[in-house]
Amino acid sequence: MTVATQSPRTARIPLDKGGARRPRRVRRLLGRLLPLGPALLLLAVFFAGPLIWSVYTAFTDMALSGAATTEFTGLENFRRMFSDPVFVKSLELTVIFVIGSAVIGQNLLGMLLALILRGRSGAVRTIVNGVVIGAWVVPEVVAGFAWYAFLYKTGTLNAILGHFGLSQDWLYTMPMLAVILANIWRGTAFSMLVYSAALSDVPPELLEAAAVDGASSWKRLRYVTLPLIRRSIVSNLMLITLQTLASFGLIYVMTGGGPGNASSTTPLYMYQEAFRFYQLGYGTAMALVLLVLGALFSLIYLRLIKLEDS
Amino acid sequence: MSELASEQSGTALTRMRTERRRGGRRGAASGITSPKKGPAALASYAVILVLFLAFLLPFAWLIVSSIETGSGLNASPTWRFTLANFKAIMNVATVYQPMLNSLILSAGTAALTVICSALAAYPLSRFHMRFGRSFLYTILFATGLPITAVMVPVYSLYARFNLVDSEPATVLFMTASSLPFAIWMTKNFMDGVPVSLEEAAWTDGANWLQSLWSIVLPLMAPGIVVVFIFTFVMQWGNFFVPFILLLTPDKQPASVTIYTFFSQYGEVAYGQLAAFSIIYTAPVIALYGVLTRFLGGAFNLTGAVKG
Fold it and tell me: Which of A54, A131, A142 to substitute to test the interface with B, most B CBs within 10 Å?
């Protein structure tokens, strides 16, 4: 995809210039493009190649199990996918996971932390930042273990909630809530950092002027701060959505997609079909749907920012 | 408008100025919380405390059970401390080999990524090319591509060319997947080196490679370190890619073997799992410390990214 959208533009350049000096210009341009070579080669082979390949594979019955012949099956994979209740469920779970943990959880909590830590003393800020960023820096798998232990039936949370008679086996009774909470914990730091940086660019004079005019702190946030940082909000939403959409390790370690398929989001179901049952064609078709889902979310965000601008 | 306002209510402004000074950095008279407001300040400190504890608690089990005997899955301390868990796993098969594999994969990827992105960033930063802007946006878009979705086609490609279970091939894929973001970061760092410094070298007949190597790169050395460490940390924690592409346990990095350990012995040896997790996490925490020092605070990491 990367290169596919790229090449027509590259090709257009010599045409635009034209004239007698064209050969020399082309040579100079090629010389300048030379350093891009290694990176472009790697991206073409490992990104664009597999993506184009995946578009082909998605329309075949390719499997890794013995059978050497791969047949073109047209839309069969897609037909099968949307009549597969587990897949449709996984798509729902993915959307719930993305909206619950990224759009609502990480985004709002990150914003809250950035706002509330603003203007705190150095020590409070450093300690809270340290713990929140710590959760972000810890490798995915370790975060999965930590939350598995935290939510286990004899784990820390139940030891605390047991005093109030609220303990239960979270990973079985509400696996989606469990993985959503874990992902909020893990990803909030990113939104917090983005919003802290954005907030520090808001001119204090504007807020002061608004305060002097009698705007409450909520109104200052709603009508001064948020409109000023809306671009950061949109790009943050886009990045965390795409990251969360692809989240695999955390859920895989905590619940393995279970119990049953209760927390099997599309990446987990795709893994199961492609690598456990060797249905590469079917798995690839799911990967394409995942990419389309990501593109849909991005389009919504871009649309939002256009609406705000006009 | 603000001048008029300041005449009218000088006291409010003075109050805000003092708040600003107390708040440090750039102005505290903002957002939903300004300090020095009695109950409101107390409430916001309560919120901070609750959030702090919520973020801290999941870590508790890791630390507590790694240094206790017979630890289970909860963090209530038994106050019988031991290093037995660490001793039990400190052997070649469990810790040393996987950690070495992680080091090779992550450092190899980081080195290759830095080289390719420094080269690629040079024309993007130095020449105003017609498609430069759209190339950068494509790169930024590729940053967001879900790697998970690319893995199935990559696997079938690797399977076809017999590259599954090959470490160099895995490094190449990891490099390709880190490149978009690394190019974006490197380009932003390179933009900070003024072109005028290079012009002298150009008039002396230096070509782009000489000027990149002897003028630009030395001046942006901290940026190069940041890109290296960032890539290293990302790949150190990468679970899915080596999990799919490397099959032999001897070749797998710690991110994968620690999961295998968990699914095989986890039920019986939680203390050891916690100890392994801590050993595996320690380098990343240390490197993140170095990273923030280089950038002068975590703030600037996003600053470097913002563009």
Answer: A142
Q: Are B183 and B139 in contact (CB under 8 A)?
A: yes
Question: Which residues between 82 and 121 in chain B have a beta carbon less than 8 angstroms from any beta carbon of chain A?
Answer: 115-117, 119-120
Q: Does B12 touch chain A (CB under 8 A)?
A: yes
Buried b / exposed e across A83-107, counting CB within 10 Å, b at 16+? eeeebebbbebbbebbebbbbebbb
**Residue B244 CB contacts under 8 Å (≥ 6 apart), including other chains:** A275, B151, B154, B155
CB contact under 8 A, A149 and B270: yes
Average pLDDT over residues B159-177: 90
| Chain A residues with beta carbon closer than 8 angstroms to that of B240 | 248-249
| B138 vs A51, more confident | A51
Q: Which residue of chain A is at minimal alpha-carbon distance from B259?
A: A141
- Facing A196 at nearest CB: one of B8, B59, B299: B299
Provide, as residue numbers in chain A, all residues whose Cβ is less than 8 Å from the Cβ of B183.
39
- Asked if A248 and B302 come within 8 Å (Cβ–Cβ), the reply is no
pLDDT of residue B109: 95
Contact B78, B68 (CB under 8 A): yes
Q: Which has the closest alpha carbon to A192: A227, A142, A236? A: A236
**Do B275 and B285 contact (CB within 8 A), yes or no?**
no
Rounded CA separation A202/B254 (Å): 43
Share of chain B above pLDDT 70, in %: 76
C-alpha–C-alpha distance, residues B200 and B249, integer Å: 54
| A196/B146 touch (CB, cutoff 8 Å), yes or no | no
Place of tokens 């490798």: A139
Task: Report CB contact under 8 Å: A204, B1.
Answer: no
CA distance A102 to A96: 10
pTM: 0.80
A276 touches chain B (CB under 8 A): no
Question: Residue B61 is nearest to which of A1, A150, A218, comparing CB atoms?
Answer: A150
Could you write out the DSSP letters of every residue in B195-253?
Answer: THHHHHHHHTT--HHHHIIIIIHHHTHHHHHHHHHHHHHHHHS--HHHHHH--SGGG--
Q: Measure the CA–CA gap between B254 and B235, rounded to whole angstroms.
A: 11
Q: What kind of architecture, by CATH, is found in domain A78-309? A: Orthogonal Bundle (1.10)
Specify the domain boundaries for CATH 1.10.3720.10 within chain A.
78-309
Taking only residues 284 to 303 of chain B, the set having a beta carbon closer than 8 angstroms to any beta carbon of chain A reads 284-285, 288, 298-299, 301-303
How far, in whole angstroms, is CA A140 from its chain's centroid? 14
- Cα distance from A161 to chain B (closest Cα, Å)? 12
Q: Would you say residue A89 has pLDDT above 80?
A: yes
What is the predicted ipTM? 0.78
Residue A275 contacts residue A216 (beta carbons within 8 Å): no
Q: Tell me the DSSP string of A52-77.
A: HHHHHHTTB---SSS-----B-TTHH
